[in-house]
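Recall that a protein's primary structure is simply its ordered list of amino acids. Everything else, from secondary elements to tertiary packing, is in principle encoded there. The following example makes that idea concrete.
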Amino acid sequence: MKSLWNDADAAACKGDDLALRVYTSRLLGASEDLVMHGGGNTSVKGVTTDFFGNEVEVLYVKGSGWDLKTIEKPGFPAIRLRETRQLAELDELSDTDMTLQLRALMLDPSGPSPSVEAILHAIMPHRFIDHTHTDAIITLTNNPRGEQIIGELFPDCLALPYIMPGFILSRQVNDALKNVDLAQYKGIILMHHGVFTFSDDAREAYENMLELVSRAEDYIARNGVAQHPTAERSVDLAELARIRRAVSEERGSAQLAILDRSPDAQGYAAREDIAAIACRGPITPDHVIRTKRIPVIIDATPAAGVPEVAAYAADYRAYFERNGSDELTILDQAPRFAIWRNSGSIAFGSSVKECNIVSDIARHTRWAVQTGESLGGWQALPEKDIFDLEYWVLEQAKLGKAGTPKAHQGKIALVTGANSGIGLATCEALGKDGATVVGLDIDPGVEAALAALGATGIVCDLTDDDAVQAAVEHTVALYGGLDIIVCNAGMFKAGERIEAQTRDTWDRTLAINLTATQRFMTAAIPYLKLGVGPSILIVGSRNYCAPGPGAAAYSVSKAGITQLARVAALELAADGVRVNVVHPDAVFDTALWTQEALASSAARYNMTVEEYKTKNLLGKEIRSSDVGRLLSALASDTFGATTGAQIPVDGGSDRVI
């Protein structure tokens, strides 16, 4: 481990211990080998004034929801130090009461909840306390000879057996500290859990952590293998989509399935002993909240189905029966990640963020497991210890607080013509409703436009069949499947009567509006059939049934895709794929309408621009967002019994009605 300490950056804290605490916490958070995704916690002791102006000794400890990598001062709620230490002397304290008491001791009750290990931080006498879940040391504590190895390698550390986090861990450490002089130690190693270092000097506490971890890394380099087999193979995307659907069905809601097919992930998945070494439990119990106890192992070619997922769920129910009680509510039985033989690992979750956390844990786990095997084997904690953390009362309390999921949470949507207008508005609406969105457009600006929405933009010429196929497959490879497609891309050129219609206008309009839509559907349908609540949405036009002069190519193309949608609704209903059409009219906040074009059109009707915008029965201006919200609603369960529908979005047109 290399120290990232910088004298100039530290000096900028200007004697402010809390600022220094933020600085060294971020140094720790910068290394995933030490902490991942909100893991680890740090603290500093100091003096401040309360509401009445009285000086109070406080513990500034990392608050819930903050990540050491990006933490700031508000991420360290101040709690009264003397009273927090008193909690460690109690004979009993439930985790629920501990949480309530820690909040009661906060100087600012509106701040984040203090870490569940706040009491432990308080009872250590040093000013700066650092706590990490470092891969290297956890790997050694998971060894069958773990206690012996730790004792020999860290004679200057107090090593304690695993015990549940929270009050009982604080009591364990508190009792231990009464019998030892902590000044003789550089740190405390909690078996199967993590490491504490401490000092009155921020730099010393930080660099002590690095020195202990480096010691573990050196031991591994001398006695084991830290570089593991790799492989590179292609994967069947249809099989990935099928796995995703099976997991989604088991969990009862759509899940993303983000595949890690990196060489090391595929090398791990190709091991003949993968089921034996990957299913002993997590490398540290903290991970069980994110990953469940074990992954599901899936055969290389599930093809006809994914029976492993159903078997996993049955095994999970048996696990609950063995360890649970009537007071506990069983969690869903779906896996959080899979080892797909020869293909890599798959993280399941309802958002990209959730999946990325699981993927990172899986990546660190496979390194620790394989490294541990090279050191003579690795062993997880007993099943009951892992269960107790998974069903910790503080985690159970969250079940009743879970809000209603968004309509498209965990779904994957692909939208064409996404750079502006209706396409961009649809991407925004789908994203707000929880979908993971990919947008296609020939305009390179689509990448930035979609990034601003937290979505993915792909530059794609929809008249290029290979590019369309590649875009669909890229989306499936990114997120595991496809549930919603929106066929929106199109062009409109008016003013050419039939006898003067140029070949270019006719050919390009039909190629973009009609043929490209058919090609896009053709590429997407095989994956939609494997989707969750799959839906095809077509953006038509009022012109399909109420055409105007000078727009023959446009009107024909929109009538054509309407008919295409009707046939698709008939063909795909048996596969559960719904197909519906919206017919917008006079949507003026799109790239098709310039101020000059608006003024010219309004003048033909002897209207002002504002009058022209609202020349419908409802007198309402139609915006791209109106169309986008309707499209998102049509893809939701609200319209789960609707297919083959055609819905106008035009404020009411007497010509259509």
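The chain has four domains: 7-223, 237-395, 412-587+624-649, 592-621. The chain is about 45% helix and 15% strand.
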